[in-house]
């Protein structure tokens, strides 16, 4: 995905989250392990959100690999330690296609 397409997908994801009661905490958090696209909070739970886009739901979902999820988990642990946080959290994905935006909560592989 080009950076421009990624930025458009992330902007749509942020708007979706805000419309659904999430408060944006941070975007594009980097560690030596990787990046977390969006960090948001809702109802005392911190959400580490990966944004993927594709022509449809399935193609966007297939872009979340075991390796990518492992990097997200390592990076979220860096974020939690760096900010001295001991909170409830989950890893989610927002899948952006041409026709829809869908959130998948608590992703695992």
Summarize the structure.
The chain has a single domain (3-104), classed as Trna Endonuclease, Chain: A, domain 1 (3-Layer(aba) Sandwich). The protein has three helices and five strands, in the order H-E-E-E-H-H-E-E. It has helices at 3-19, 57-61, 66-82, and strands at residues 23-31, 34-42, 45-53, 88-96, 101-104.
Would you spell out the secondary-structure blueprint of this structure?
Elements: H1 3-19, E1 23-31, E2 34-42, E3 45-53, H2 57-61, H3 66-82, E4 88-96, E5 101-104
Parallel strand pairs: 3-4
Antiparallel strand pairs: 1-2, 2-3, 4-5
Characteristics:
alpha+beta, Trna Endonuclease, Chain: A, domain 1, five-stranded mixed beta sheet
Question: Would you mind describing this structure in some detail?
Answer:
This protein has 109 residues and is an alpha+beta fold. It has one domain: 3-Layer(aba) Sandwich (Trna Endonuclease, Chain: A, domain 1), CATH 3.40.1350. Helix content is 36%, strand content 37%. It has three helices and five strands, in the order αβββααββ. The longest helix has 17 residues, at 3-19. The mean pLDDT is 92.
Run of helices and strands: HEEEHHEE
**Rounded to an integer, what's the Rg over CA atoms?**
13 Å
Low-confidence stretches: none
The structural class is alpha+beta
Per DSSP, what share of the residues sits in E-state strands of 2 or more residues? 35-45%
Count of distinct structural domains: 1
Distance between the termini: 22 Å
Number of helices: 3
How helical, in percent, are the residues? Answer: 25-40%
Shape: globular
Note the main sheet: 5 strands, mixed
In the CATH hierarchy, the architecture is: 3-Layer(aba) Sandwich
Write down the CATH class: Alpha Beta
